[in-house]
Amino acid sequence: MHVLVTAGPTYEPLDPVRFIGNHSTGKMGYALAEAFAEAGANVTLISGPTNLPDPAAARIRTQRVETADQMYAAAAAVAPVADVWVFAAAVADYKPAQAATQKIKKDGDTLTLELVKNVDIAATLGRTKRPEQYSVGFALETNDERAYALDKLRRKNFDLVVLNSLRDAGAGFRHDTNQVTLLEADGRVTTFELKLKAEVARDIVRTVLARLPHHA
């Protein structure tokens, strides 16, 4: 079995020294790559900029990228041959319309940036998903969590959405723990208690493997 995992943030350059990014550490995506490898899968891990070392498992091939465009290109190359897609990266929704070639100098009290929408990697690849392929997405929400997660599941052709609520203490970015609810396209809902991200990853992998026809 071949699994594609995206992880970490993307950095969208403003100029040679600055970027738009987010607080994703990549820990959840890396834990998922390791859990799938433990279960016997070959994994392609496409990682945005993180402080994490490449996973040591021989079954994991790590590709490093910076921007959403680079992550999309890398994921699109692997997606057709992967059985499972896991979109755990926190991809920037927008990027600067123009990245300055020289450092932007401090000039005046305000600076106006024009941002343009990035490619939606999961949604774009979701339109190409074959019936035997299984797609997992993440939703990190602060309000109306379940409604947003179910909307994301439909729009991006996911089979499973992992919902993190930023209202749960110890969950989300910058924590070694996570508390998730799994929402499935067939209406099944499973809520887990707060756990280490490595344990959360194993719960997700067990769920995915149970849903795949050749593993059930």
How would you briefly describe this protein structure?
With 216 residues, the protein is an alpha/beta fold. The chain has a single domain (2-96, 114-211), classed as 3-Layer(aba) Sandwich (Rossmann fold). The protein has five helices and 14 strands.
Can you characterise this structure?
By secondary structure, this protein is an alpha/beta fold. Strand 9 (134-141), helix 4 and strand 10 form a beta-alpha-beta unit. It has helices at residues 27-38, 68-78, 121-126, 145-155, 197-211, and strands at residues 2-7, 12-13, 19-20, 42-47, 60-64, 84-87, 94-96, 115-117, 134-141, 160-165, 177-178, 180-184, 189-191, 195-196. The protein has a single domain, classed as CoaB-like (Rossmann fold), CATH 3.40.50.10300. The model has no long low-confidence stretch (mean pLDDT 92). The strands form 4 sheets. Strands 5-4-1-6-9-10-12-13 form an 8-stranded mixed beta sheet, with helices on both faces. It has a two-stranded antiparallel ribbon with strand order 2-3. The protein starts with a strand and ends in a 5-residue tail after the last helix.
Rg of Cα set = 17 Å
- Give me the side-by-side strand order of the main sheet: 5-4-1-6-9-10-12-13
Tally of distinct domains: 1
Main beta sheet strand tally, sense and closure: 8 strands, mixed
Strand content: 25-35%
